[in-house]
Structure prediction request, 418 residues.
Amino acid sequence: MKCLFVFPNAPLSPNFSGGASRCLGSFLALSSLGVELHVLRLLDGEAAERVFLHEVDRAVETDSVRKKAASWQDVMFSSRTQSPRRMELIRQAAAHPIELSFPAVRQLRSSFAEALDRIGPDCLWTEWTLSAAVACAANCEVPWIYSHHDWIHRIQDVRRQSSTGRYYLSDRIMGSAMKRAEHRIVKRSSLVITGSATEARELNWIGRRTPHVIPTTYARLPAPPASLRAEAKARIVHLGGLNTTANHVGLTSYLNQVHDLVVTGSGDKVDRPELLIVGDASRAKKVLLDQLREKGARLVGSVFDLSSVLRQFDIAVIPYVYDTGTRTKLPLLFNHAQVVVTTRAAVAGSPEAIDGENCVVLPSLDEFPGALVDLARDADRRERLGRAAKATFDREFTLESQLGAFRRALSCLGTSLS
Prediction:
């Protein structure tokens, strides 16, 4: 089987971002199944430098991945476009919601068509919504899979709710157009894959066919030695780049509603858990960075080898309160034997997260302070939950454990893997 693998604005790397990790997992799964992969990467000029720098810094990793592709082409585009006037905006929203929501589609159309003609693929695999939008707008006759990461219109709603800025009529029009565009892409795709069980139900209702639910996979790390014990003094860890909506909104909520109560409830200063922030903070908002420094958090930035900073059996918080998209960090934290404390909404799409068995799932942020203080004082419980989390990862989130799911998805296209 010959496949054109399309994804935007990321390296195929396990530690650039959650979305990049998901793209890498799909790529490695298809490669392991013997699919001939031809890569078409769509790069926004403003994101390209970060992507290329990461690949240079991780040259061995980059080379290893690229060797698995039969061909590789990067296509540049610009996300800077002029907003249309009110009446033209309304007209485009009604007639061309995909092109309005993803203006890069017009810039990428010819390169996409050229790649199709040159490669002659049996199928397309499109990661993230922009890639699927390009395939959809091209009315591609080749069967294509849409690997859905999250609903952009819902993420935009979360941003709006957390913003103090005005919400204009043009924002409403654009939001409506984005929702219609995303629904249209789902309906026109041949098959949809998602990492969220809850979003799978919505995708099924929209597309009138059952999506394949495949969680994000990572390379398996060694299990904690049997002799290893949790440190008496716990740390509270937040993982993820601070510019993404879920991380920014979740961490801000944690700082505003939770952390001071944890400090107060922990008693003496020597017993207070350290707050460790792991992830790219270069594009974080100044108000968030100032707040983190005020709370005494330690920011270590983006780290290639997470094992160098994530201590097994520490507490990892996911304080996001919305059920949007795939929680790609959940399996990553499980792989590092972290004790995840999260809200029910944040992991609603991840049935692998079981409260009291391999993590702590709470109804809301109101329960976080008490739960975190109790965990910080109970090293034995942290060790038990961390080991169970690692066992869950080994069972559910490795490439080997999900190859069958990828094989079944490809078989639904009616093309042979041979």
